[in-house]
Write a structure and sequence with these properties.
Layout (H helix, E strand, L loop, with lengths): L1 H35 L13 H40 L14 H39 L6 H8 L9 H39 L3 H8 L2
Helix pairs in contact: 1-2, 2-3, 3-5
Amino acid sequence: LQSLLDMMVAEEESLKERLLKSIALCRKELDTLCRELQLGPFETEEESTILQMEKNLRTCVEVLQKQKRDRKQELKALQEQDQALCDILCTALFSIDTGSVPSLDDLDRYRRHVASLNSLKEQRREEFVTNKRQIILLMEELDHTPDTSFERDVVCEDEEAFCLSKDNIEALQNLLQQLEARRALNEAVCAELRARILALWERLQIPEEQREASAVH
């Protein structure tokens, strides 16, 4: 019986030692996680048993590790979206320390930044599609063949492949204005020529039948 009791005491002492080691490791890891996650220091219930304390600390470590993983995963997803948007908008990437765990405020600012880029992309895409449609109609009306690389990109390129940079949108607006100015000039010249033709018809007393035959032009 004494031997059995000694063995039970030895097992309990061994369990206590393992629990104390686990508690020390959990406290150390919790301190690290709290610093990385920018949280306040973790406080334990000192009145609980060693077994309960070890369980509570281990549970807290698992919760904070999950928070750390979730933040890093969200940061990675935001960076991928940011990179794709910056490629098409030709803007700079969001400035954030990728070597540390982002704070909740950092992630919130990043989310709002990506949302604003998405909004800008949709705005420029709509502007591009609208201007492209008008440019194609004007080129057909003016019998103009795209003769620069930019004009060919606008008319022939896949809409999704067109770079929606600020410079490209401004160049698009300039091209549209140039074509509109050419059409306005052509219309003014046509109006002047029509007026001269009408005046000559009057002076030459051209019959109405002949005038109607030429009027279709």
